[in-house]
Every structure is written in structure tokens, then in C-alpha cells.
Amino acid sequence: MRVGCPKEIKNNEYRVGLTPGSVREYVAHGHEVLVETGAGAGISADDNAYRAAGAQIARTAAEVFAKSDMIVKVKEPQPGEWAQLREGQILYTYLHLAPDPEQTKGLIASGVTAVAYETVTDDRGGLPLLAPMSEVAGRLAIQAGATALQKPNGGRGVLLGGVPGVLPGKVTVLGGGVVGLQAAKMAAGLGADVTIIDRSIPRLRVLDDLFNGRVHTRYSTVEALEEECFSADIVVGAVLIPGAAAPKLVSREMLSGMKKGSVLVDVAIDQGGCFETSHATTHADPTYEVDGVIHYCVANMPGAVPVTSAHALNNATLHYGLQLADKGLKAIVDDQHLRNGLNVHKGKITNRAVAESLGYEMAEPKAVLAA
């Protein structure tokens, strides 16, 4: 199979779908790899590094899309890329379709077979291709929030760790999954007063044991959300319903009860955001203010640290990517976890959460693949 890797074109996105190390693995499996010139510049991997790994270098993205049987990316295809996808081609990348009806229409019209990193599963019920970027985003959320909290950046002017004689800043984390755990680790490491809110009591028990009392845990109720958000300096939105739009946990009305200059960091923005007032921002212009509360809603947070992120992502995606390259559609037929990752095939939506979020009829993956 010919595997193609175009350069990412989303605003300030420096990651790359295939590192030179991953290219070597595809080549070792007998595949051709076509990489757009400059695709790895953001991780300090030049064209010569890709050539040494066995890749061919394409002058344009159009050449990559036209000549490749499978496209490996990081972020969802942009409008100019939808038109270059075609039936019989596999797209392997993050998609986050639930809050993005236009992209969904574009993929349906193309006829492409689209496998989304964020809905591929594993034997433990986890999301192994989402987890590494969730780890990065959770840790970055505290860095970003602490920066936004500084007075010159519009924040309250609070140091998260405090100093002797002065109380530390307060961080509330909504959601105790991978993002929430990593955010809490970073915040607690800086010396902040941290509370995690989740609706799973078993998960709260696990978190309580992990932190050994250094982090507070609360069961998620309207009262708990209000109390913790109103007292917080930073609120991190870290909720996830796989494939579906994120629930809106913080309403516009609730902002009036929050501290002026406090910060909301919406890590769920890829899935539409978990704050009613959230809208996607970029690294070029990451924050905005609503009712005196600073919002940080960058939709590709891990893109700010592409060397770490690209290698972590490739470590996770390589196994399934090689299956797709080795076996084509048969890999999806044979592997339940890849079938869970299938979101679109020949104009049909094949993921239930995406279909329900956008009002489409869901087509069973096995049925459409057999057809």
C-alpha cells in the first residue's frame, strides 16, 4: 500500500502524522510512504531524515492525496483537503465529527473510509489513540491556565502555588479521566489547592487513593459544580463522552458567580466544549473574555509542544496504522477496536455517537464493509 503523510495546515499545528521512525516501520512492512516536503519541520525532522527512513518526498499536498491509498494525519482534514479525498482511500486521523457538521458532510461526499483516532478502543475499554494527547493536553491545561491567570494577560493575578503566608490558587477539574488526572497532577505539583469533580464514585475512589489526600474529590451535582467553580481561580473542563458532543456543564449564567479574572480552560473544545460560552480559539489568539472570566479554548493544545506530542501520538497510532496498511479494509472487518474507530465509509456514518449527535441514521460497520 502507498501511505501518504501531508503537512498539517491547521493554525499553529506543528505535529506530523508520521515521524521518520514510523516511516521506517511502514517501509519494513513493505509499504511505500509518500511525505509532503516540510511535513516534519515542526518536530525538527527535515526531508533528508524522511528520505533516510525510506520515504519519498512529494512537492505538494495534492500529490500526496492523489497518489496515496491511505492518508495519515494528526488533525481533522480542513475544507481544502476534503475535496482531495476519494472513495477507496483510507483516512486515519483525529476527526471529532460530533460538533463539526460541515466536515462530516465533506467526508460523506468524498466517499472516503475515515477511521478516527479518538474512537478506536482497546481490550480494557480505553481509547488508546486519544490517551497520549489527553495526557499532554491535561498537563498543558495548567500551564495555559496559570499563564492566563497572570494580571498582564487579563487574569486575577494569582500564583497557583502561593508563597509562605499566602494561600495557593484554587483549581477545579471537571472530569476525572485521563485529562483530569494529568491536570490535577500538574496543579497539585505546583502547590495549588485542587478539586476533581466526577460522577463516577468508583473513579473518585481511585483518584483519592492515587493522590493520597493531596487532591479533594467531589461527586458531580449542580450544587457541587457551582460551589467549586465559584471559588476557583482556574476551572479545567475535562469531560468526554466518546464520539459525542461534550455536555455543557458551566452555563453563561454561572459566570456571574465566578471570580473576575478567573480562567476557564476547555480541553473538551474538540468535542464542542463543556462550557456554554466556549468557542474554539487558536494558539495565535488563545483567549477571550466573557463576563469578566477568561476563556482558553485552543482546539489543538498539544500542537504547542509538537516534539513531545508527535512522538507520543505515533507511539500509539503505529500499531493500528500498520494493520490498516497491511490488510486494508479487512483490518477493520477483523478487529472490533478498529471498527469502533470507523466513523465514515462510502457516504455512511458508522459511529453511533456521531450519528446521534448530528441527526444521521447510523449504518452498522460490518454491514457497510460487507457491501
Query: Total domains, how many?
Result: 2
CATH-wise, what's the superfamily of the largest domain? NAD(P)-binding Rossmann-like Domain
Overall geometry:
globular
The number of helical elements comes to 15
Q: Could you give the order of the helices and strands?
A: EHEHEHEHEHEHEHEHEHEHEEEHHHEEHH
Tell me the fraction of residues in β-strands, as a range: 15-25%
Q: What is the CATH topology of the largest domain? A: Rossmann fold
Give the terminus-to-terminus CA distance: 22 Å
Radius of gyration: 21 Å
**Biggest β-sheet: count, sense, barrel?**
8 strands, mixed
Compute the average pLDDT. Answer: 96
Residues in helices, as a percent range:
25-40%
Number of strands: 15
CATH architecture heading of the largest domain: 3-Layer(aba) Sandwich
Q: Going across the biggest sheet, name each strand in turn.
A: 3-2-1-4-5-6-14-15
CATH class of the largest domain: Alpha Beta
Low-confidence stretches: none
| Helix-strand makeup class | alpha/beta
InterPro entries: Ala_DH, Ala_DH/PNT_CS2, AlaDH/PNT_N, AlaDH/PNT_NAD(H)-bd, NAD(P)-bd_dom_sf
EC number: 1.4.1.1
Keywords: NAD, Oxidoreductase
Protein name: Alanine dehydrogenase
Structural overview:
It is globular and about 65 Å long. The chain is of the alpha/beta class and 371 residues long. Helix content is 37%, strand content 16%. The two termini are 22 Å apart. Strand 12 (287-290) and strand 13 (293-296) form a beta hairpin. It has 2 domains: 2-127 and 306-370, Rossmann fold (3-Layer(aba) Sandwich), CATH 3.40.50.720; 131-304, NAD(P)-binding Rossmann-like Domain (Rossmann fold), CATH 3.40.50.720. Helix 1 packs parallel to helix 2 and helix 6 (131-148) crosses helix 7 (178-189). The chain is built from 15 helices and 15 strands. The longest helix has 22 residues, at 306-327.
